[in-house]
Amino acid sequence: MLEVNASAILTRLRSAGRASVSALAKDAGLSRQAVSRSLAVLEAMGLIEMSAPDRAAAAAGRPPQMVRFRAEAGHVLGLDVQPGHVRGVVADLAGTVTTEATGPLRRDGAAALAGSLAAAVRDLLDRAGLDPSDVWHVSASAPGIVNPVTGHVALSVSMPEAVGDAILAGVRAAVDAPLYVDNDIKLATRGERWRGAPHVEDSLVFIDWGERIGAGIELRGELYRGASNDAGDLGYLDLLAPQSEAGGDGDLGPFERWAGTRELLRLAGAGTIAELTATPAGLAAIQTVARRFAKGIAAIRALLDPEVIVIGGDIAQLGPVLLDALVDALRAEKLNQPRLEISTLGADAIVQGAIRHSLSWVERERFDASAIRKET
């Protein structure tokens, strides 16, 4: 029971950051003696810090003994690997981002990618003032189909140099810590659920809408991957994108050619998304692409019936103008449509999802009762 109590107290203390021994005992429903024994274990593990009694906190009687969770005892890394660059963040054990940096990635082969990724990770650690041994876990994203068990990239149209184990090799050359690699949109979905707008729904779809279009699907509160681990790859829909209307970009899927960023800018005759709302041609292009994209939303609705769809990616910067166009386009649908929202995290969704995954590993492998038992 000592380890079970210690794990329960650690969970409460991580949430509060700092609390008195008596408050922890009351919250956990334990005796002060049981709490004190558990705190001794956690202190020996370096996870908490006992401070002197706070005499200012009590006008009369014995001042409370205070305890602080040592969020700085370890760190996790979140890496957003994209064609030509990687964005890395360092977070402490409370999930607070302490350092972030973006570095270049070479594209002339897997070995070059791995070498430049290792250099970027080392630079990130230098900026954070950390040694590799301070890192408890790393989670990295990849644009493409990833085997989350092995971390190997099976397919990446936009980043072929990442296919295989290049990301694994690059990170492991810089940090000897447990490593997880997953699809970027699946990690972004987890980030939206954790740090985006609060959602209590059991079913949620996150769509990354830009030059490429992909989705992360949560059903009954769990990420749904599909039999081949590529559920949600909307860019490859071809039933809704007539070839006569879709562009000829061979590196994009049919739906991406029909409703992605390149097509939107081509229709508007614009160079950037930021220009679109300033001209009649831009607004007309938004309406056209929104009508096309709405067909993808209607397909998701017919198959999955999610309660909410969160839209992120480059096109999401259009905000209410985009949402209004999509709602108008969906009015003709016979089925009730899901609520539509714009992502509140933007580009942060991927790294936040990576941090969340690493912290889940820490909670399971370092903070669970069985893990504490191994340390005592």
Can you tell me about this structure?
Residues 6-55 form the HTH marR-type domain. GO terms for molecular function: DNA-binding transcription factor activity. Belongs to the ROK (NagC/XylR) family. The chain is an alpha/beta fold. It folds into three domains: 2-69, Orthogonal Bundle (Arc Repressor Mutant, subunit A), CATH 1.10.10; 73-188 and 349-365, ATPase, nucleotide binding domain (Nucleotidyltransferase, domain 5, 2-Layer Sandwich), CATH 3.30.420.40; 197-344, 2-Layer Sandwich (Nucleotidyltransferase, domain 5), CATH 3.30.420.40. 40% of the residues lie in helices and 21% in strands. It has twelve helices and 15 strands. The chain has helices spanning 2-16, 21-28, 32-44, 110-128, 166-174, 184-195, 254-259, 261-268, 280-304, 320-330, 348-365, 369-375; strands at residues 18-20, 48-51, 66-69, 75-82, 85-92, 97-104, 135-142, 145-146, 153-155, 179-183, 204-209, 213-219, 222-224, 308-312, 339-342. The strands form four sheets. A five-stranded mixed β-sheet has the order 6-5-4-7-10, sandwiched between helices. A hairpin with a 3-residue loop joins strand 11 (204-209) and strand 12 (213-219). Helix 1 packs across helix 3.
Brief account:
Helix content is 40%, strand content 21%. It is an alpha/beta fold and 376 residues long.
| Biggest pleated sheet | 5 strands, mixed
| Strand and helix order | HEHHEEEEEHEEEHEHEEEHHHEHEHH
Low-confidence stretches: none
Overall number of structural domains: 3
At the first level of CATH, what is the class of the largest domain? Alpha Beta
Ends distance: 13 Å
Average the pLDDT over all residues and give the rounded result.
91
Report the CATH topology name of the largest domain: Nucleotidyltransferase, domain 5
Tell me the strand order in the biggest sheet.
Answer: 6-5-4-7-10
- Classify the helix fraction into a percent range: 40-55%
Q: Which quaternary structure do these chains form?
A: single chain
Global shape: globular
Pfam family, one: ROK
Protein name: Transcriptional regulator
GO molecular function: DNA-binding transcription factor activity
Domain HTH marR-type: 6-55
